[in-house]
Amino acid sequence: MSRAIPLLDLTEWRTADAARRSAICAELDASLSETGLFLLRGHGVPPEVTGRMRTEGRSFFGLPAETKQRYAVARPYDNGWRGLGALDVGAVEGMSGASDLHEAFHVGPGHRTGDAAFDAAYYPANKWPGELPALERTALAYTGHMTRVALGVLEILAAALGLPEDYFTARSQRATWTQNVNWYPSLHTVGEVQEGQMRVGPHTDFGTISLLDRQQGVGGLEVWNEQEGWFAPPFVEGTLVVNLGDLMHLWTDGRWCSLRHRVLAPSEQAPDEELVSLVCFFEADPDTEVVPLPAPTGGGAGMETVVAGEYILDKVGVTVTVD
Known about the structure:
By secondary structure, this protein is an alpha+beta fold. The protein has a single domain, classed as Jelly Rolls (Sandwich). It contains nine helices and 14 strands. Strands 1-2-10-7-12-5-4-3 form an eight-stranded mixed beta sheet. Strands 6-11-8-9 form a four-stranded antiparallel beta sheet, with no helix packed on it. It has a two-stranded antiparallel sheet with strand order 13-14. Helix 3 (47-61) crosses helix 6 (133-160).
């Protein structure tokens, strides 16, 4: 792969001998230490399910604004619809001030513990649009695949660190996660773009890993590392982009980095281009105590232990005490 971004094949991993697995782990470790991402194929997500998720998600954004408003998010950590300009992701890094040029529909897990306050904080209810009944069926099928893939990737990441295979997955059986359908409208749709405005401003994700099914475009994904600055990662049809979030950066005590990335503004070079991205932000069981791994497994940054769910909520500006 160009720019030292590995391509991991899950099918190959399952049948690889110890020597090959060791080589794969070394390649992943290098990329995750420098940039924080790799590409994934052999993941077994049926293309027709991905296609339906993208198509039906896009149909939601085509509904009238007053209809979409009935499914709007009501608080920072919530499921449902966020309209155009509702977020300024780059403001977290102090680099923006212009709202992001995308709409999003958020879906989450249906876990319930029986503790009403805990569940309300960490597992907000989904808001399924009655106008599009197929969206719920498709989203449940698609997110089932995302959960399966995320757990499989976490097993490989544990192996890359020399840990027991279930080190992360044992702490992710009731994981919080958010599945986004992100619609990036065309330049003709959004009109004038403010200086510095992007489809998504520069940021890192908050969880352990994110799984992205992207469409290639002029106004597309860019990622950053210290060696090269901003660059477009390779696009390989049918692959998922796997990137690390802040929680995994902390868990590895700085050995691996969370990916800094952005999505460029719609371009005058392609004024009719619109894109739909599917991204699953996977976290961990909300009551998991995330203890930074000691050296030499961890990076020795001396980061503080956190509780996963409280850490995520704090990232979005929510302070919650759940007894």
